[in-house]
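Subject: two folds for Thursday's group meeting

Dear M.,

Sorry for the delay on this. The cluster queue was jammed most of the week, so I only got both jobs back this morning. I'm pasting them in the order they finished. Each block is the input sequence followed by the predicted structure tokens. Could you check whether the formatting survives your parser before we put anything on slides? The first protein is the one we discussed after the seminar.
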Amino acid sequence: MAGYQGWFRTPSDGTKRGWVHWSTEQTRIAPETISFDLWPDTSEYGKEELAPADGFTFANGSRAYLYSAANPKTVLRHFQWMRDYGIDGAWLERFVVDLPGNPHPDPSLDTVMKNVMNAAGETGRVWTISYDIAGTPGDKIYATITRDWQRLVDSGVAGSPRYLHNHGRPVVAIWGFYYNSDTNKMTPEIAGRLIDYFKAPGKYGAFMVGGGSWDWRRASDPGWQAVYKRFDAYIPWNTGNFTQTPDGNYHAVTDYWYDDRVAALTNGVMWIPEIYPGFSWSNIAKVRHWTDLQVTYSRNGGNFYWEQWAKLTKLAAQTVYIGMFDEVDEGTAIYKVTSNPPTQAHFVTYDGYPSDWYLRLTREGVRMMRAERPLSDAIPISR
């Protein structure tokens, strides 16, 4: 399954949110305000799905357009791609800071959720809620999540036909279990309350998936160690964990995966490794003046991504979290992206590979994990 942000909006989508996640300014989009690094390939989108990005043109002079996930046709299109390229479904990101009970709730989150629910139904995919506590005050985390979950259960969302269940329980993921983060407001105490809530018998019980530190086994705090042992499943967030070899190529760090799996299974926790195709946040780093951060590393034609699929196959992994399907802000998207973006600003591309190259690699990686094709350390398809 792939993480699905679904957080992109445009001025014409009816949400009154403006250029959310395309620009740092809701009312305009310009080279100095853009907050994403990969320009999506919109050649297959209908006119009713697109909004003109004024001032942005391609090399041939044609206007450039962007989409909104508030449009049901667009979300359906994305789920059709998931179906066509062998992705079973999506973890829909639902940011806690944007939910009711916080200063600026965003009603369009429910619009996107409805789009996802309908698209999953039409394409035979599964989906599940994936809460993210980023930016949420500590005293709001527990109440906001549990109140929202109760509403989703009571309204029938969590019981809808394509909502993911495991052992009869609806699956809910929560991101934010980072033991060594100064900015993340999760604590072992809050985590314990959330686990107690979701593990309690009754209609609101769920199969709870935690997401957080990739190096969770190193946590010295016994409170955090107790938390990591209580999840039903755990996803160590590996994005940004990389090494560079003398030849200049980047590689995701995966040497800890085997011990992670053993430790998780010993604790009775399902291990869900997270893989990603690359990373870049050069535009948002420029706008926010992040001058001391590594902002881009090469995907190396897909080899960065494929190496992770090969490692998963050797470990006989049963499932995987693909991070992410549509995350162009941080350059981790696998969906269709153009290698010929507008010329008015700097964008990262797929280096001349087809726009569906990473979807194709995903399809072959899934087949390899399922023993439907031989193990291959090298990319087994050509562009």
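Second protein, same layout:
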Amino acid sequence: MLSSMTGYGFADGQFGGITYAVEIKTVNNRYFKSKIKLPEPLSFLEGDIEKLLQKGLSRGMINYTLSLKNAPADMFFNLDEQAIGSYLSRLSRIASSADVRCQIDISGLLTIPGVLAPVPPDEKKANEIREAVLNITQDAIQRVRQMRSVEGAALATDMEKNCRVIKEDLEQIRSRSVATLKEYQEKLKKRVDDLLANAKLQLDEETIAREVAVFADKSDTSEEIARLDSHLQQFGQSCRTEGQAGRRLDFITQEMLREANTIASKAGDTDIIRWVVDIKCCIERIKEQVQNIE
């Protein structure tokens, strides 16, 4: 079954008294691309998370965010109190010598490089955190895939409806093409007869037959109709197969549009042109939907 590239998944879990919350948002993209936001002390997890995302969500723009709740302030960050004391002492001395009264913003001091530094966990702790976070991430990915499947089914239903409309119009064109040739032959013969009536001349049937044959060859769309019908069958089969079908469906849709354009260029009948316009409108709607298929 088809799967959309648009989805959302959230999962959380506790480890060591800390709540790890994973949020994943995905939108359509031609290839796999990820944006991973992690707390700085847990940046060592980025490579493992990237591999897990690529395995579970093979295509699309993936926005991944890991946040922590109830984490002790000193668990992942080291506050250099000696450095802060030194900065405060210097600032106080400068303010006193200049006879200036001012308030020192402690939060501003924390932004000075080296004052608040991340402290990565030791190897044992890092492995435990890695296992916990990846398990939570896997749960979030599964929820994204569930949402993608639901939307993919809705997209498939809409595209199948448009394919049925195309097939119906194609049958109309096939039937009309036969009638158009016969009408052309009758109109040609009547026009020639009218032009030659006063001149009392006659045009042999063989000449008219050759002209009709030339017209039939130029306006013959049987191959294009057969190919477009074949593309419709391939499209339906691809929609029912497992795995990624987005790129294949995109290619088939382009070929469908090409055949429709060729039919329009060969057609000299207003009814056929009208049906081709309807077909092209349906193909364009399908193309829009295909862009969001994984």
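Two things I noticed about the second structure. The first helix runs from residue 46 to 56. DSSP finds eight helices and six strands in the chain.

Cheers,
T.
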